[in-house]
Amino acid sequence: MSELDLSTDEARVSYGIGRQLGGQLRDNPPPGVSLDSVLAGLADAFAGQQSRVSEAELSASFKVIRDVMQAEAKAKADAAAGAGLAFLAENAKRDGVTVLASGLQYEVLTAGEGAKPSRDDSVRTHYHGTLIDGSVFDSSYERGQPAEFPVGGVIAGWTEALQLMGTGSKWRLYVPSELAYGAQGVGSIPPHSVLVFDVELLDIL
User: Fold this and answer.
1) What 3-state DSSP class applies to 201?
2) Active site residue 181
3) What pLDDT was estimated at residue 1?
């Protein structure tokens, strides 16, 4: 690629637009996406040239790829759901793990003797959240800043657990997907993911 002149605001904004489009394709790439074809379509549209592919062909091809992506997403979701159920079933057998009627599992790392919050309270906590493979998706410890939020304003698994914890407690929660983000997932959390949290209840606000 020839050297780009990015010395002007216009050039930098133009490059930024390309970066944004490229980032979107990188994060959610259609199967078999071709960068050359993407660039050709972008150039043709920008130049006002007639499309090299008819609307009917485009529509049909988009449907094929959309169906492939949906099938792949379903296969991944089904695999995640199965892995989560297997993990919880094995985890429930471990000494020290308590299983609640909702399906929430926890083990007490530190037993605090302070007051327990109600659903209407707000709390200050430290936490570290991972998927069952150990990959971290969120951690107030890593940010170095405790989190404050209403007990009733978080995922159902947290709302249930917090009301059982005395201030000063630190628990490890094993949250079934239906008590977390379910079939939708969120951010870096895939659909049907079981979540593992170390939660430290610092204070009731």
Assistant:
1) strand
2) yes
3) 55
**What integer is the mean pLDDT of 22-27?**
89
Residue with tokens 């529509």: 59
pLDDT digits (tens, 9 = 90+) for 139-152: 999 999 999 999 99
**Gap between the Cα atoms of 100 and 116, Å rounded:** 18
Examine the residue annotation and report whether 141 is marked as an active-site residue of this protein.
no
87, 174, 181, 189: the catalytic one is 181
The per-residue DSSP string of 132-195 comes to: TTS-EEEEHHHHT--EEEEGGGS-HHHHHHHTTPPTT-EEEEEE-GGGTTTTT-BTTB-TT--E
Please say if 138 is a catalytic residue.
yes
From the list 87, 106, 174, 197, the catalytic residue is 197
Q: Which two tokens stand for residue 108?
A: 């007490």
